[in-house]
Amino acid sequence: MVAATKRKAVISAERSHLDAVDALVQEGRYRTVSHFVRDAVAEKLERLRQERLAEQVSRYCDAGTSGADDELVAWQAFTDAPKHTPRGRGAKR
Predict the structure, then answer these.
(1) Count of alpha carbons within 13 Å of 92, Cβ hemisphere only?
(2) pTM of the complete model beyond 0.85
(3) Helices (H) and strands (E) in the chain, counts
(4) What is the tens place of the pLDDT at every residue in 49-84?
């Protein structure tokens, strides 16, 4: 039985890809084809999350606002302040 957090899905894939996955399973690198697919999906989603974050940082920096945080970054780097303290909540100005 599939756990409540998992759903079944049917995929279509190139035979050569499936043969390569089957070989990895046979080598013992993955328990099952499903294990490989779950791992591959998780890696792809994390890569997309990182790309999205990098794009957002790039847009933020390109907008010319990155210098506005210099004071906050310096304050956090040289104090025992929690690194997540937003400006205006205990930040020294």
Answers:
(1) 9
(2) no
(3) 3, 0
(4) 999 999 988 888 887 765 666 766 676 667 665 555
Domain annotation covers residue 19 = yes
Number of domains in the chain: 1
Expressed as residue numbers, the domain containing 23 is: 15-62
Residues 36-53 pLDDT 10s: 999 999 999 999 999 999
Query: Within a domain: residue 68?
Result: no
Rounded-to-5 percentages of helix, strand, coil across the chain? 60, 0, 40
Domain assignment present for 84 = no
Give CA–CA dist 41/35, Å, rounded.
10
Burial code (b: 16+ CB inside 10 Å, e: under 16) for 69-82 equals eeebeebbeeeeee
